[in-house]
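User: Hello! My lab partner asked me to get a predicted holo structure for this protein. The small molecule is magnesium ion, SMILES included with the sequence. Please write out the structure tokens.
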Amino acid sequence: MPGMGGMDLLDHIKNQQPQTHVIVMTAQDTMNNTILAMRKGAYDYISKPFDFNEIYELIDKVTASSQVTPPQEKASVSGTDFSMDDIVGKSKTMQDIFKTIGKAAVTQLPVLITGESGTGKEMVARALHFYSDRAKRPFIFINCAAISRELLESELFGHEKGAFTGAVEAKKGKFELADNGTVLLDEIGDMEIALQAKILRVLQNNEFYRVGGKEPIRVDVRVIAATNQNLPELMEQKRFREDLYHRLNVINIHLPPLRERTEDILLLANFFLKKFSVELTRGQVFLSPHVEQVFKSYQWPGNIRELENVIKRGMVLASSGPMLVEHLPLNLQANRPAPEPADSTWDTEMNPLVKNFLKDRFDSGKGQLHDLLIEAAEKHLFEQLLEINRGNQVATAKDLGINRNTLKRKIDAMNIEPKKKKEKPSY
Ligand SMILES: Nc1ncnc2c1ncn2[C@@H]1O[C@H](COP(=O)(O)OP(=O)(O)OP(=O)(O)O)[C@@H](O)[C@H]1O
Ligand SMILES: [Mg+2]
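Assistant: Hello! Below are the structure tokens for the protein in complex with magnesium ion.
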């Protein structure tokens, strides 16, 4: 596409023909691009290489939905002038999450983010804010589990002077501070039921009272809630209000545990290696193949935060060069996978020969072990080199450092078939 990038084209199309559905096909499937494209109103975003069946299905979906398309709201797009740490993830679930962030960022609807501890809930909440039109307004974070019930109420809604002992001055709460911005109610599953009713009122009427206040205060705040608890379960135990749940759960983003997106593990590990390299190490640290194995098979109960800490620790211990299993915490070392079945020529070809020979040592082969082994090794070596040299005997003889006539004689004697290395197909 000379002259104009895909994102600009998408802007143009959406400005001139908002009802046009645009599917972006791209090689640049970064988090930023995916979120931006969806935010600009793309119908879907797929990265190359893709499967044509996927495209056919999408086109069917577009055709079906264009018959019922409501007029599209034009999103004002502020570009990419914000800085946000990359949310790393190539797995299908993470790509879908980026798309949801892009779509949800342009709305004012509440979002409920669920997922185990350390899966990135806070990160997603921040992205929702930074990709929204509220990006330049405050993002206010409050951990509902960390504060006592009485304090939490005044933290959230503020208090008037003299509302309780110690309230020597009136104070604004988080909701007031976040006006026109976003509030993240973290660990909402731990909030007391009485306070939940007050949150519900903010969601319904955009207003609340300070502790000890008589006048309702109106705010325009986008509410995002996060929890690692199972809210439906809490509702059954009457510890979470059902009406609040439905209010919050308009858009749900569920972050899967790391063990369910194994394809992201090494990606994240390398991301952290790079991120902390300046701060923590003298030279470059990289993962040894063995450590990669351990990482891929470990269950990661603490999810990405645990991975992040394991990498930091390993980097300090390795200092420079490969991070080895001994640089990992003991619980990961215990997870050390069994050594891989050896796949060397010795194991697959020579060893059986020796074993057979020893088994039948009184039989016909007696006294020929040396010759048999050498011949087997030689054959294997010739075959490999001939394959690398695409059957060219002159080049092979040169590599081996033997006379080409000798090579030819041996090839004939050993019945080696000239195997041509397959050409790489070019597209
Ligand atoms: N996809 C990701 N890419 C890069 N870093 C990530 C990603 N997800 C999480 N992290 C990092 O992992 C750590 C934990 O993430 P975060 O605090 O968002 O998780 P959480 O779900 O809120 O955890 P908790 O339930 O413990 O509060 C943070 O340091 C964050 O930067
Ligand atoms: Mg958190």
